[in-house]
Design goal:
It is built from eight helices and 18 strands. By secondary structure, it is α+β, with helices and mostly antiparallel strands.
């Protein structure tokens, strides 16, 4: 059986290089292993899309950005495969959704065991996401440069969120959800098909959970924290797809930046099997 290991040495605390030999040797106990190192944004996606080799499993070692690049590559890959994850980022929402943590030895054990979970991959224009889409306030935090990420980890994200809230502006949104049109000024739109968001566990109700937030600064913070802790929101919807018209200039898919020209259509694209922790 053949396995492709893709990894990003710059994920999380950037100490992956010391662990690579162990990761390779462990995977080789079951698989013939090839590998690819990220050379910059989208390089993993392009590499996988252009592959003409069938891999039984592709393993992404890195943060949510690395996972998203891998998922996006697999969406254009001509063979069926399974995705395994060795979480190495700061937040690792997708890893948490699969019952994984930063213990890379435990992740390797799960990959060798091969328990799988099928997850819907959604397409937003020409981009893909496996757990979340966002437009508006704080959506650029995940790819903002910060020296503190290496030392403070998740705390650095929350510090950046507070900083970005003071600079945020409202965005105009016209949404079509379940044949209903919602149009107004909002601070943030979140769309998720995952049980984890921004490191917090939320209640996912199937298909796409859609939450809209109003208010700036303290009002927004209050409403957002309430949503993360209780999964309740005044502007809440559940749907299989969503159409968006907006004056925002970018959107976020699984923590990755995407330019926007005014319109976005989100719809289910394909199912993908992920390696996951076996339910007890």
């Amino acid at each position: 059986m053949r396995l492709l290991l893709v990894y990003n040495l710059h994920s999380g605390k950037k100490n992956l290089e010391k662990k690579l030999d162990y990761i390779r040797e462990t995977l080789k106990t079951k698989y013939e292993v090839d590998e690819y190192r990220s050379h910059g944004p989208k390089s993993i996606t392009l590499y996988i899309k252009n592959l003409d080799i069938k891999y039984d499993i592709i393993v992404a070692c890195g943060g949510d950005g690395t996972v998203n690049e891998t998922v996006s590559g697999i969406m254009g890959y001509k063979y069926e495969t399974v995705l395994g994850i060795i979480p190495r980022g700061t937040i690792n929402d997708m890893g948490h959704n699969l019952g994984l943590n930063k213990n890379y030895k435990k992740s390797l054990k799960l990959i060798l065991e091969g328990n799988k979970k099928e997850i819907d991959i959604y397409k937003a224009n020409d981009s893909y996401f496996s757990y979340g889409f966002a437009i508006g306030m704080m959506t650029d935090v995940s790819y903002a440069k910060s020296r503190s990420k290496k030392f403070l980890g998740r705390l650095s994200y929350y510090m950046l969120c507070l900083k970005h809230i003071t600079k945020a502006r409202k965005i105009h949104l016209k949404l079509t959800i379940n044949n209903e049109i919602i149009e107004d000024d909002f601070s943030l739109l979140l769309v998720t098909n995952s049980n984890y968001l921004a490191g917090y566990r939320i209640k996912q109700n199937g298909n796409l959970d859609i939450a809209l937030f109003k208010g700036n600064k303290f009002i927004f913070v209050k409403n957002f924290i309430k949503y993360l802790l209780t999964s309740k929101n005044k502007y809440y919807y559940n749907a299989e797809s969503i159409s968006i018209e907006t004056d925002a200039k970018s959107f976020n898919t699984d923590g990755e930046y995407n330019e926007l020209d005014g319109n976005v259509t989100i719809e289910k694209f394909k199912k993908l099997n992920f390696i996951c922790k076996k339910n007890k």
